[in-house]
Specification:
The complex is a heterodimer of chains A (about 625) and B (about 110). In chain A, about 45% of the residues lie in helices and about 30% in strands. Chain A has about 625 residues and is α+β, with helices and mostly antiparallel strands. In chain A, strand 8 and strand 9 form a beta hairpin. In chain A, helix 16 crosses helix 18. The radius of gyration of chain A is 60 Å and the shape is rod-shaped. Chain A starts with 10 loop residues before the first helix and ends with a strand. By secondary structure, chain B is α/β, with parallel strands linked by helices. Chain B is about 40% helix and about 15% strand. Chain B is built from four helices and three strands, in the order H-E-H-E-H-E-H. In chain B, strand 1, helix 2 and strand 2 form a beta-alpha-beta unit. In chain B, helix 1 packs parallel to helix 2. Chain B is globular. The N and C termini of chain B lie close together (about 10 Å). Chains A and B meet through helix 14 of A and loops of B.
């Protein structure tokens, strides 16, 4: 045994890169590398020939007896231990190798030590990450897979196996893996993707359907990525995630969205959502069709951009009111006018949209086109008016008939009574004459009534376009002698190209009656002037017949002027029938007649011919 | 029997009214009894009645409204005048075969 103090370091040992000491059988350090000295922050002179136990066996983890056992074991052993150097605990790994002399006698131990604090830390970190990853993959149901190209081994993570519903002991192959995908699109797709990954390293991430080991159909998100080494693909790995519930939920959401949008789009009602500024943020198909463009061109626009400005302001005021009060406006009749001037009647509802604070951020509007209903309503109202007028006319007519016939029968009755009781022949003859006269009157009356009935029952009118000027001229010719005799100045100012739609006989009757009336009721103090004018007015043609005659006190007779058997002048030939008949004729053709008159000045009759076919 | 030597007939209400006005102006007797037809040209029976009431006659006149009309509205008009005027108004439907005592005398 050598017992030389402060032996110099063997030069070879001194240079060893790995921290190494040589310990003899007495546990004395006989040599050490510089790397060992620096590892423990020691100097050669301080450790030379000292007991190795002083350096290593300084804590509970590596007691003296354990260390002694390692040193005298005579076989290679590796231990990990903690030592404190300069007050810092560090993790070491030491290898005990028996030290033999030339004769294979064990003369001590070669002790090599590595500071593995870093490795241990990394290992611990790796472990932590693994646990974390596992936990995460369990929670997120994300599994993984790996395929080693050199060993051709495919491995699935625990979670992946769970997704496939295979036991943890299952070892998959590539073919099996692909066969799990549902036949058709999913299997074709994954085969192609995997092939591309293998050949070109093209990554993928795709949602596909697998049939699990237990036969369940499930949506998965399969991802793949290639790992290269020296430009060569050596490994493939990827993720595998169960996204079934998500896909189903998404599909359901999409389906219900589609259902809703199909419903809204196909409602025969204009539906729109407006923001606070009354700009449209959603419109349905009906609304698009109404505006006459696509939703793209409507979104973001307000009523001011789309409709008549006055109407837009009304609509904006309604919007503001609904959003201010938060009270829905329900079933209000509105009128909308588009830029081209076409107007539509709507039954409109506006419902405020509230945010989580209960404040309005817009509104849903629904407008039902009721134009045709309104039109029908107007038609119906018109019809009711016409019916009411007709009804009044009928009642009136019934009174006229009953009165006229009654008065004649009363007349007969009375005259006959007188005749029976009369004894004087001369008086009898007078009564007989009166009876004959009464009989003629009755015949006249019946004829008159027949004429009136003929108008009112003539429903199938045969209106024809007639040249007004020509028709007037014809009447003028027929009355030539009568007009001449009364020195009438006849002024026909009607434009020659103007036509009216009328029943020929009625037009003649109207002109004839008004002209003869004008002559009959002329002012004896001046020569009669009759002037006729006509012009087109809206949907009718107005014919005016003006005279300078006696005039009629309209305050007194206004209401009766067109009545039957109404006469207002002291004229013997006044029948009180002409105006009544022409009024009926005009009205039967859908027109109307009015009168303006001033006593001693003259009278103007205005006849409106209806030019619409109804 | 009632005796009368002043009986006049008129074509229409206007002529009758003018005659009546002339009588008042000249201080001549106004009629005691009037037979009034409703349907007349120029001025009908109702218009005549209205004008008559405006004359404010002090004497009560018997006015027989004579008509062949059976229109209830005519009867209502008559009733209105009957209730609002001091004159004695009768309503007689044609045919009339006999003049009743009440038609010409207040006392009957």
């Amino acid at each position: 045994m050598k017992s030389v103090k402060n032996l110099p370091q063997n030069y070879l040992v001194k240079q060893l890169p790995k921290a190494t000491i040589l310990v003899n059988n007495d546990y004395s350090i006989v040599d050490a590398s510089d790397s060992w000295l620096s590892l423990f922050n020691l100097k050669w002179k301080d450790v030379s020939e000292t007991n190795v136990l002083n350096t290593y066996a300084n804590n509970e983890e590596l007691p003296v007896h354990t260390l002694k056992a390692y040193l005298s074991a005579n076989k290679k052993q590796k231990i990990q231990h903690i030592n404190t150097v300069n007050g810092i605990e560090r993790q070491y790994e030491s290898t005990f190798t028996p030290w033999f002399d030339e004769n294979e006698n064990a003369i001590g131990t070669i002790l090599q030590t590595d500071d593995i604090s870093k490795q241990v830390e990394i290992k611990a970190e790796l472990e932590r990450i693994k646990i974390l990853l596992k936990a995460k993959s369990e929670v997120a149901k994300v599994g993984s897979w790996e395929y080693d190209l050199t060993t051709e081994k495919l491995s699935w993570s625990e979670e992946t196996k769970k997704i496939y519903q295979v036991p943890q002991s299952f070892t998959p192959s590539i073919g099996q893996g692909i066969d799990f995908y549902k036949q058709g699109y999913s299997r074709n797709k994954i085969s192609m993707l995997f092939h591309k990954l293998l050949e070109n390293g093209t990554s993928y991430n795709e949602r596909l359907i697998i049939i699990t080991h237990k036969g369940e159909e499930r949506w998965v998100a399969a991802g793949g990525k290639a790992i290269r080494k020296d430009g060569k693909i050596v490994k493939l790995l990827g993720t595998f995630q169960d996204v079934h519930d998500q896909v189903i939920a998404e599909t359901k959401t999409k389906e219900s969205e589609e259902l809703l949008s199909t419903l809204i789009d196909n409602l025969p009602i204009n539906v729109y959502i407006k923001d606070k500024e009354s700009r449209k943020i959603l419109v349905n198909k009906t609304e698009c069709d109404y505006i006459g463009t696509t939703a793209k061109h409507i979104i973001g626009k307000s009523d001011f951009d789309l409709y008549d400005p006055k109407i837009a302001q009304i609509s904006r005021d309604e919007d503001l009111e609904v959003m201010r009060t938060l009270k829905p406006m329900v079933g209000i009749e509105t009128i909308n006018i588009r830029k081209d001037g076409r107007s539509t009647n709507f039954l409109t509802s506006k419902i405020p949209l509230k945010d989580s604070d209960g404040k309005a951020y817009g509104l849903i509007g629904m407008s039902m086109d009721i134009t045709h209903i309104k039109q029908k309503e107007d038609e119906l109202r018109n019809l009711i008016n016409i019916t009411a007028i007709q009804n009044k006319k009928l009642t009136n007519f019934a009174h006229i008939v009953s009165h006229n016939l009654r008065s004649h029968s009363a007349n007969f009755s009375m005259l006959l009574d007188f005749l029976v009781r009369e004894e004087e022949e001369k008086e009898k003859g007078r009564i007989m004459k009166m009876l004959t006269h009464a009989s003629d009157n009755l015949l006249d009356t019946l004829e008159n009534l027949n004429e009136v009935v003929d108008i009112s029952t003539n429903v199938n009118l045969d209106k024809k376009p007639l040249k007004l000027k020509e028709s007037i001229h014809k009447v003028q010719q027929n009355l030539a002698a009568f007009l001449e005799k009364n020195k009438v100045e006849f002024v026909n100012q009607v434009p020659s190209n103007l036509s009216v739609k009328s029943v020929p006989a009625y037009l003649e009757s109207i002109i004839l009656n008004l002209v003869t009336n004008a002559v009959k009721y002329r002012d004896p103090n001046r020569n009669p002037i009759i002037s006729l004018k006509a012009k087109k007015q809206d949907k009718s043609i107005l014919l005016s017949i003006e005279d300078n005659g006696l005039g009629i006190d309209l305050n007194r007779y206004g209401g009766k002027i067109f009545g039957m058997y109404k006469t207002f002048h002291k004229k013997k030939d006044a029948r009180g029938l002409g105006l009544y008949i022409i009024k009926n004729q005009i009205e039967a053709m859908g027109g109307s007649i009015t009168v303006n008159s001033e006593v001693n000045k003259g009278t103007t009759f205005n006849v409106y011919f209806n030019e619409e076919d109804k | 029997m009632v005796e009368c030597n002043d009986i006049k007939a008129f074509e229409n209400g206007k002529v009758a009214l003018d005659d009546l006005k002339a009588r008042i102006e000249h201080g001549t007797n106004v009629p005691e009894v009037i037979f009034l037809d409703i349907n007349m040209p120029i001025m009908d029976g109702w218009e005549f009645l209205e004008e008559l009431l405006k004359l404010n006659l002090k004497k009560r006149v018997i006015i027989n409204v004579v008509t062949s009309s059976i229109d209830p509205s005519d009867y209502q008009k008559w009733n209105h005048f009957r209730l609002t005027s001091l004159h004695h108004l009768n309503f007689r439907n044609k045919p009339i075969y006999k003049i009743e005592a009440t038609d010409v005398s207040l006392t009957g």
